[in-house]
Amino acid sequence: MADVRPFRGFRFDSSRAPLSRVLCPPYDVIDKDMAKGLRCGAFNAVHLELPEGEGAAKYRNSAALWKRWQKDGVLKRDEAPCFYVCEERFVVAGKPRRRVGFLAALGVTPKAAKDIVAHERTLPKPKADRLKLLGAVKANVSPIFGIFPDPGAAVRGVLARTIKTRPTASGVSPGGTRCRLWALSDEKQVATIRRALSSRKVLIADGHHRCEVSRAYYALDRRPETETVLAYLCPEEDSGLVMLPTHRIVKDAVGPAARKACALKSVSSMDELLKLLARSSNPYAFGLLEGGFSLALPKGPGGCKSGLGVEWLAKRLFGALAPDQIKYTPDARKAVKIARELPGSAVFVKPAPVSQVRRAVAAVGLLPPKSTYFFPKIQTGLVFKSLR
């Protein structure tokens, strides 16, 4: 069974630090300009998630701030173990969407980890960084993001009833997502959620590095509090669960390899290219910016077991490149900008449905890095989980 537990979370005192002023994205999507703006907020979670400083000093800065905010009452711990229900309202492609999930403590012990399904390969550098932060702060600052099947709608029923009540906190993220949070401590409702997940496996949507780091930290420190990692969990059937394609940018030209494996059709603009790509019936079709825009349609059968374009691209176009030689973004316009500044090539990935990810993992195991981008990223600052 998936080991999903309520926990006593630390949350910002809304009278001193309203939710709209404390939220930030996870560390791996915060660039320098965004970090500078977020750090203008005295109590923004970025000071814990992506602390300033060089070397070991930055981790010590985060740890010292974590303790000071507790001492000063900026962060307060809930009296009872809770699941934290979170509703997010946002806009994608001009359409309003709503996603509802909950934050919990997810087991990472060797036994519990058997029911956590990873789908992306990880890199050593971000894992080393997150392990140092975890060891210094001794708290889960940002949650991993997991999805799970809820065919009987038992969990969705609890979540739907909860969001009809008055929220514990509400605010707007830096990216414009409207967030509402409820601390759910009712024993019957908590038991319903735990029972519904008792035969389910959780697929990691985002946060593979943090999940692996939590498993490694548990192996070093066997305290009960380290048995779990902070996780945001969302039913796969939720209508607001959105997965965007993550486009690739490389410095080296990929045109020769693309022309060898594909038929290329010139396209006048990025917008036209993205429309053609979304409509294409070929799961391995991709877009290319190298001089001009082109739609690439692979020749012949030559697919891959996962059925996902990202695996096909990794094997046919990027096989000789290390993952850190590739830049990634879900923003097509940003991909164009980066490619032209390098200069280099941008490869636009075809959108894939959420349901295909679990099938792909079952077929091939781990996929290339940045194979998925669940939008929006779950915000840091909603709640924290102490490891002490």
Helix fraction by DSSP (H/I, runs of at least 4) = 25-40%
Radius of gyration: 21 Å
Mean pLDDT: 94
Number of DSSP strand runs: 21
Strand content: 25-35%
Task: Describe the protein's architecture and organization.
There is one protein chain. The protein has 388 residues and is of the alpha+beta class. It has 2 domains: 4-243 and 375-386, no CATH class; 246-351, no CATH class. The chain has 14 helices and 21 strands. Strands 1, 4, 5, 6, 8, 9, 10, 11 and 12 form a 9-stranded mixed β-sheet that branches. Strands 15-17-16-19-14-18 form a 6-stranded antiparallel β-sheet, with helices on both faces. The mean pLDDT is 94.
Pick out its properties.
alpha+beta, 21 strands, 27% strand
Short summary:
Helix content is about 35%, strand content about 25%. It has about 400 residues and is an alpha+beta fold.
Write the SSE topology.
Blueprint: E1 4-5, E2 10-12, H1 19-22, H2 32-38, H3 46-49, H4 56-71, E3 75-77, E4 83-92, E5 95-107, H5 110-113, E6 116-117, H6 124-137, E7 139-140, E8 144-148, H7 154-162, E9 169-172, E10 178-184, H8 187-196, E11 202-206, H9 208-220, E12 228-235, E13 242-244, E14 247-250, H10 255-261, E15 262-267, H11 270-279, E16 286-290, E17 292-298, H12 309-316, E18 326-329, H13 332-341, E19 345-349, H14 354-364, E20 373-375, E21 385-386
Helix pairs in contact: 4-6, 6-9
